[in-house]
Amino acid sequence: MRASAWVYPRASLPRLVNLAAFFAWMFLADDRDDHAAHVEAAAPIPARDFLERITAGMSSAWGERFIRNLEDWTASNHDVARHRQARTVPTEAEYVPMRRLSSAWVWFYDLIEYANEEELPASFLGTPVYRR
Question: Can you tell me the distance from the alpha carbon of 55 to that of 63, in angstroms, rounded to the nearest whole number?
Answer without folding.
Answer: 5
